[in-house]
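quick q for whoever's on today - can somebody do inverse folding on this one?? i tried earlier but teh output was garbage lol. tokens:
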């Protein structure tokens, strides 16, 4: 059996390597193919001895999906070429489309899914958890519509494609900003979060303080590591001169761990750390090297997750899916997210109607949604059920198929340039 597992993993890894180039001109994405391969493997007796049930392996799902997300967040932060200077109002304004998606579109998505959940008969806590888990745009599976990586040296640019920039920066921030709503669901499930005092506690601690701690820790870690990498007095510490790209992994683990110890949001810390590090010596090729390491590791972990999800889909993960789960999933992907995005971006400068529609539509759901469900059920098991996992898995799969099939033709239709390798 172990030899067979290695054979399947090796063949699938080869697929992951060659698929992005092979599928570049087709309305098929690599995640679609990998999920399909996983489903095909699951229909054979080859994996009869493998356990793929997320209900019984919740902790494993939480740790693997969480690691994949923070690696993706580090890559996203390093990939963004547009700077964000905290003391410059003009710099904040260049991120206007991102703030609109975070402050308007995401809460509307959470509210929309929660209302649909209540309409189909879910309890408030479960409906709110479903809304929080499914609201964020995923930084892992949305690569086809995001920026490819940092442009450094002579290739550095200041104005990336607005569609890809908005989707990339939104994905970098909204995973962490969904956490307050996950905690709101946990508070409701535990019998709290209903009175004024509980509401004020949620607002002050979960929605403000933990966000501030996460961002603050990320900025601090990013500044310290950037100073060491680029400007340390000891040449042995200036790792940028040696091109030691594993610093990216040290940075994301340090930022995440320190933020969690300080009771802040680790996801926000990782993204803030990456953005802060990217702001130092912006044209240095070291950023591209660090991004390449995170991207390759993210690709490997994503491969494993997509294969496992495909196997699970064909081995009972959707057994408890019913019309309610289909209504939630398709309602979010086809109605709630596009409508919320269009409301958020109405009148947004620098974007035409077709560009706003593209950003609103491409709210890819993925690994982050699986993480939030696993995280919440580890703290309130009574919230969980096979139906919840079936609904989230269906929504992620529907997003992979719908967005994957439409990414290439729609991005070409709105005039967005193809996703090019970083540094070109």
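ok took a stab at it. sequence:
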């Amino acid at each position: 059996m172990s030899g067979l597992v290695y054979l399947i993993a090796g063949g699938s890894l080869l697929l992951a390597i060659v698929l992005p180039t092979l599928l570049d001109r087709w309305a098929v994405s690599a995640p679609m193919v990998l999920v399909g391969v996983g489903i095909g493997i699951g229909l054979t007796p080859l994996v009869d001895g493998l356990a793929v049930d997320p209900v019984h392996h919740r902790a494993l799902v939480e740790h693997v999906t969480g690691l994949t997300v923070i690696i993706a967040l580090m890559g996203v932060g390093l990939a963004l070429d547009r700077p964000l200077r905290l003391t410059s109002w003009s710099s904040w304004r260049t991120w206007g489309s991102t703030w609109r998606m975070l402050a308007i579109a995401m809460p509307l998505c959470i509210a929309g899914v929660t209302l649909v959940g209540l309409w189909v008969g879910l309890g408030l806590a479960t409906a709110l958890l479903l809304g929080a888990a499914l609201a964020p745009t995923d930084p892992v599976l949305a690569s086809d519509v995001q920026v490819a990586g940092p442009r450094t040296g002579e290739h550095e640019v200041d104005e990336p494609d607005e569609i890809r920039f908005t989707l990339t920066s939104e994905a970098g921030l909204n995973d962490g900003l969904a956490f307050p709503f996950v905690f709101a669901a946990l508070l409701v499930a535990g019998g709290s979060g209903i009175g004024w005092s509980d509401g004020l506690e949620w607002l002050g601690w979960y929605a403000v303080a933990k966000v501030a701690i996460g961002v603050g820790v990320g900025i601090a870690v990013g500044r310290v590591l950037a100073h060491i990498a680029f400007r340390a007095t000891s040449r042995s510490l200036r790792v940028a001169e040696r091109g030691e790209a594993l610093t990216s992994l040290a940075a994301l683990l340090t930022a995440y761990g320190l933020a969690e110890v300080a009771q802040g949001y680790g996801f926000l810390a990782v993204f803030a750390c990456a953005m802060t590090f990217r702001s130092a010596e912006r044209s240095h090729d070291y950023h591209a090297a660090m991004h390449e390491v995170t991207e390759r590791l993210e690709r490997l972990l994503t491969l494993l997750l997509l294969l496992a999800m495909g196997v699970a889909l064909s081995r009972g993960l959707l057994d408890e899916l019913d019309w309610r789960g289909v209504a939630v999933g398709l309602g979010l992907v086809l109605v709630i997210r596009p409508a919320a995005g269009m409301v958020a971006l109405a009148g947004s400068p620098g974007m035409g109607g077709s560009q706003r529609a593209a950003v609103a539509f491409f709210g890819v759901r993925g690994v982050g949604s699986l993480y939030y469900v696993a995280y919440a059920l580890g703290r309130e098991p009574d919230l969980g059920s096979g139906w919840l996992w079936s609904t989230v898995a269906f929504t992620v799969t529907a997003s992979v198929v719908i967005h994957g099939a439409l990414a290439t033709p729609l991005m070409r239709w709105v005039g967005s340039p193809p996703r090019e390798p970083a540094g070109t």
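fwiw Residues 29-413 form a domain with the Na+/H+ antiporter like fold fold (CATH 1.20.1530.20). also The chain has one domain: 29-413. so keep that in mind when u check it
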